[in-house]
Design a protein that fits this description.
Layout (H helix, E strand, L loop, with lengths): L1 H22 L4 E6 L10 H8 L1 H5 L10 H9 L4 E8 L4 E8 L4 E5 L4 E5 L5 E3 L10 E4 L11 H8 L2 H6 E6 L5 E5 L5 E5 L4 H14 L1 H4 L4 E5 L5 E6 L32 E2 L2
Parallel strand pairs: 1-3, 4-7, 7-8, 10-11
Antiparallel strand pairs: 2-3, 4-5, 5-6, 8-9, 9-10, 11-12, 12-13
Length: about 270
């Protein structure tokens, strides 16, 4: 009988404690920003501003009225947030940990005149004058069929090799989906085709640089194309290379790839 009474007491006490805990507000909201190495473009104050009145109500309203999943969803809706994790700690504090968006590329969409950053999943973050993040530049007219993320496999491969990082200045994606590499060696562009067979395409390109360009001259061609398997197609320049204009703002000079497109030219050399 005594055991039954003790058990009943514990059940009632636990229920009361649980109800009391649900009715009491949380003690605090702690916000942690991780991986914020890109100039601090996301701060705890930014997160509090996004939560608005909710960030203050957490220490005023009953705990059972606070939905941590809804808080996560609200923060993830911010364009500059990569991840968000909201949990309740044992000391009745809510810990909200966020990671700023990790830019995979900076996109200049010539069809809309907009520019923005994307992460690996394609989430877009509007470019802001307050910060400038270090990310590869991709220019193009994008559509439902041609997306900025199409260039990411090529960007990943370039970033994995220092020699290619030093070679490529920026990337353009054509309306047909061809990826054009704009090298730091001024005067020509590289038609890379799609993002298939990446390693072999770069092997052919670098072999062409070593074997042909020193003989023909670095301004002899205006387009090199490696989009066709086993070939390097070179298109001879048909006009003089124009002087490089002065830089304007923070935009880098890019040779106009619109007039530098290998299409049906006969392959200058075949490379297996």
């Amino acid at each position: 009988m005594l055991s039954l009474l003790l058990t009943a007491y514990l059940v009632v006490a636990l229920c009361y404690a649980s109800q009391q805990a649900a009715a009491d507000p949380y003690r605090a909201l702690k916000i942690y920003v991780e991986g914020n190495s890109a100039g601090g473009f996301v701060t705890p104050d930014d997160i509090r501003h996004e939560l608005g009145q909710l960030s203050r109500d957490i220490t005023r309203l009953p705990a059972d009225s606070i939905n941590t999943l809804a808080i996560e969803k609200r923060i993830l809706a911010m364009d500059n947030i990569e991840t968000a994790n909201c949990v309740v700690l044992n000391n009745r504090t809510i810990a909200l940990t966020v990671e700023p968006l990790v830019p995979a590329a900076r996109i200049f969409d010539t069809s809309t005149g907009s520019n923005f950053y994307i992460n690996r999943s394609g989430k877009r973050m509007k470019a802001n004058a307050r910060y400038r993040l270090d990310a590869p530049v991709v220019v193009g007219r994008f559509s439902d069929k041609v997306q900025p993320t199409d260039a990411l496999p090529v960007i990943d491969y370039i970033n994995s090799r220092q020699d290619l990082t030093d070679l490529v200045s920026s990337i353009k994606v054509t309306p047909k989906g061809d990826i054009l590499l704009i090298p730091r060696i001024r005067g020509h562009v590289i038609n890379f085709g799609d993002s298939s067979d990446i390693a072999n395409k770069f092997d052919r390109l670098l072999a062409f640089y070593r074997q042909v360009m020193p003989v023909k001259g670095w301004e002899y061609y205006d387009t090199l194309s490696v989009k066709w398997r086993g070939q390097v197609v070179a298109k001879q320049r048909n006009k003089a290379l124009e002087p490089q204009p002065d830089l304007v703002g923070d935009e880098e000079y890019i040779d106009d790839p619109g007039t530098m497109m290998a299409t049906t030219d006969t392959p200058l050399t075949d490379m297996q």
